[in-house]
Amino acid sequence: MAEPGALLVLDNRGNVVTQLAQPDKINGPWGMAINDEGDEAQLFVSNVLDGTITRLEVSFEHGSFAVVATPLTIAHGYKFGPDSTAVVVGPAGLAYDSASDTLYVASELDNEIFTLQGAGNTNSDLGTGNVVFSDSTHLRGPLGLILATNGHLITANADPSSVTNSTAGPSEIVEFTKDGHFVRTFSIDSAAGSAFALNELCEKGTIQFSYVDDTESTLTIWRLMH
User: Fold this and answer.
1) Fewer CB within a 10 Å sphere, N or C end of the chain?
2) Which residue segment(s) compose the domain that 211 sits in?
3) What's the burial of 16, exposed, middle or buried (CB within 10 Å: 0-12/13-18/19+)?
4) The CATH number of the domain where 158 resides is what?
């Protein structure tokens, strides 16, 4: 049986500083996004065991780490439950756009991408927010989610057995705009359930895009010029 789990806080040498274990607010953390504000940050955490999103306010002042406010549930109502191939499914990947204070949520079992407007400033529960991308031709249990350097969103399909209304191919990575227009897709593996975590960095004119193949247990890195 899946248990609530915790968030581990590590220093830059990989040592555990502390862990955050609050079953009423951290209940199966499945994805996280960070709003970096220098000595402070907001952590957005998706909880796969109860279909909620939690926001935590934390401080890094003087080299320490502390939660500086009561953790707040800012969203709820996403579908969640056990899955024979993915163990458990629910709200997963998160991507935060600080320019518009918008949190994007990849919800596996809903098979949709949601937006939470005002996620960094709200003091109330926003429900599920609004659906921004729903496309059963290309989505099949979206798990990993990032906001790419070109302003688009990219998600990774986990292909859970509980998502049955999709015709998407196996292990697809899907790109779409923030207003929900499909851009492109490609499969990273012929085996279903391989697409998992994603990342993208931009440094000195080079874009570094990476993804995890969960079937092969590999990390692939592409370096692309602007």
Assistant:
1) N
2) 7-225
3) exposed
4) 2.120.10.30
